[in-house]
Design goal:
This protein has 283 residues and is α/β, with parallel strands linked by helices. The chain has a single domain, classed as TIM Barrel, CATH 3.20.20. The protein is 38% helix and 16% strand. It has ten helices and ten strands. The strands form two sheets. An eight-stranded parallel sheet has the order 3-4-5-6-7-8-9-10. A two-stranded antiparallel ribbon has the order 1-2. It starts with 11 loop residues before the first strand and ends in a 21-residue tail after the last helix.
Length: 283
């Protein structure tokens, strides 16, 4: 396969030398042949960003879909994540290599720490993550589910630039503090569960705004995020949803509409509230 290089045509954000396509396919809970089929179809439709993780237990299928698509490797941004039980220095490199074996790739574009693990010193884990990058197993590195305090600690203690924080992010959850902290440090924000696990689809405000633009509530929800330069990785098992999720670059929300949507956030809007060992103190 050709050397990895970010696709120059897909709408993207740039952070610490990485060019991350603004729309990607999340693969959480996708399994088996259905996973491979959706990944392959997404790439054929023009997606250039695929997100997986060792915990998802589908890296083999993601790799199958990538190879079957016929899209050049250098045109696809592939992210995977290391599970916290592998954060010790001697285990992280092995876990990263195992991910590559399953994906059938020589390197990934972005390797993330999936959740904080307070039982292992962050400096140790970041040191191992930086080594993985220097050894050529990942072009870029980053974190996921990190709070503002953890971002600040990680930036202080890493020897390699951190490209992003992948977090739960949608209009129903106020993540403004984390977003601000990331942008202040030159990091991108990648939003998982960007349509709030489907809750956006039935929201009256999003539907009303969508009607004005001849778009669906889901498309408005995703547009709200990408218009803030937030990368979105909606998961779908339905091929017909792939086109809907990607068709968000031919309209623009007004300042008033952005303000209205932002007002949907509330304190109990979090859907994913779990940590490997001890819940983070969310911002």
């Amino acid at each position: 396969m050709a050397p990895v290089s970010a696709n120059a045509t897909a709408p993207a954000v740039e952070a610490q030398g990485a060019r991350i396509p603004l729309v990607g396919l999340g693969t959480w809970e996708l399994r088996g042949r259905a996973c491979a089929r959706v990944v392959e179809q997404a790439l054929r439709l023009g997606y250039r960003h695929i997100d997986t993780a060792e915990m998802y237990d589908n890296e083999r299928e993601v790799g199958e879909g990538l190879h079957a698509s016929g899209v050049r490797r250098g045109e696809v941004f592939v992210t995977t994540k290391i599970w916290p039980s592998h954060f010790a220095a001697h285990e992280l490199e092995r876990a990263a290599r195992d991910c590559l074996v399953r994906l059938r790739l020589s390197e990934v574009d972005l390797l993330l720490l999936h959740w904080p693990n307070p039982q292992i010193p962050l400096a140790e884990t970041l040191g191992a993550l930086a080594k993985v990058k220097r050894d050529g197993l990942a072009r870029h590195i980053g974190v996921s589910n990190f709070t503002v305090a953890l971002i600040e600690q990680a930036v202080r203690e890493t020897s390699e630039p951190l490209v992003c924080d992948q977090i739960e992010c949608h209009p129903f959850l106020d993540q403004s503090k984390v977003i601000k902290a990331c942008h202040a440090r030159g990091m991108a924000v990648v939003a998982y569960s960007p349509i709030a696990r489907g809750d956006a689809r039935g929201n009256e405000l999003l539907a009303r705004i969508g009607s004005a633009h001849k778009k669906t509530a889901v498309q408005v929800c995703l547009r709200f995020l990408v218009q803030q330069d937030i990368v979105v990785i909606p998961r779908t098992s339905k091929v017909e949803r792939l086109s809907e999720n990607a068709a968000i670059f031919d309209f623009e929300l007004s300042r008033q509409e952005m303000t209205e949507i932002a007002a949907l956030s509330h304190p109990d809007g979090r859907l994913v509230d779990w940590a490997y060992s001890g819940r983070p103190k969310w911002d």
